[in-house]
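1st attempt posting a full record on here, be nice pls
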Amino acid sequence: MANITLVEPTSPPRRNRTTAWPWRPVRHFIQLAFMALLFALPLLNWFRIDLRGRFMVIFGQTVWMEEFYFLLLATLMFVFFFMAVTLVLGRVWCGWLCPQTPLSEAANWVLRHIRQARGILRYLLAGGALIVLLAFAAAVGFATMSYIIAPQELWAELTSGSFTPWVWGLLIVTTAVVVLDALFLRHAFCISACPYGMIQSVLTDRDTLRIRFMTERARDCINCYECSRVCPVNLEPRKQKMQLECIDCAECIVACEDVLRPLGKPGLIEFSFGQRSRAQQREFAVSGKALVVTAIFLAYTGVFLYLLVNRSPLAVQVVPDPQQRTAVVNDTVTAAYRVQISNRSRTPDAYQVQVEGLPAGAISVAPNTVALPAGQQGAATVTVRVPRGELPAGSHPFTVVVNSVTQSALTRSQGSSFFVPP
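the predicted structure (as tokens):
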């Protein structure tokens, strides 16, 4: 490895913004787009968990408590997605998507300009910045609460002042956390407290994407320390050991290129899969571990999408009634079945229960029509009474058909069997 001689810092030449790739504007655009998406998800009914109604909304579909395996699958998808991203791209989430990073960068930028101001202007800037921060924090609090309370209900309660104490408490706490974070924590949270950053050491390997100083061109370094000065987490990018605190924001890449390109030289810092030089890097640098984790993520995603696409707003289950076992009384075979009906839609509905496959005179259904509010379950009992000899001994399949009263196309059926003892 080439030696780097550290000398007294020299003043860099006048910057000429000629970066080979616009890392900074692209990163800022992605950050803002992702933050806008986080604000929009509950507003567009793409994702939220309604604690009051005890249901979850996924891409406009209502998933009730009994279907919370969707939440389990979504959690597993989330975990394996982040594992795969970390194995391949390192902490690119932290530098390019996590809302903590743009909040910290914006706060640092504002604080820097406030410190540079003099006289009354400093107080005016500080007051204006605090007002903007409080408004932004309140918006973040509202958006966060929208994930657990319908945004329309939340806004109506906010404008009418009819919030319950726990809603006010959560909104105030969320707003306070954002304000305190921007004022005192910022990137210090990323370095010392972020749980995602802490588990990175377990997930990264020698093929993970990271910032690399080109030791093979170390003689071109003019020791201006611009790369260290712009690092938001106060690292020395020229060190060759893996620095887990690095959030892959590319600020050091931009700074180095801005300094060296006016001198006719390309930058000395780059993204690299591992710490290999360009000559040593493999054409396909993704590790087998990353491929396995990605395959698991894709499998969970496939199952999730399949279940979501094929999900019905009406669910029916037929089980033998445990309180009325099959019995023979006065040469009549009697059995009862419980029909569980779930209204998975967001509107009340009524359902008619019919039985096919057995003699009509042998069937009784109580109640024949089951009315259910949105997201609720109900049941009907199907009783079968067949005189001995009318049906041969053995198992006789039948089908329970449940039809929606308000939606003629909505119907579900479930099979079962009636056993006639010899």
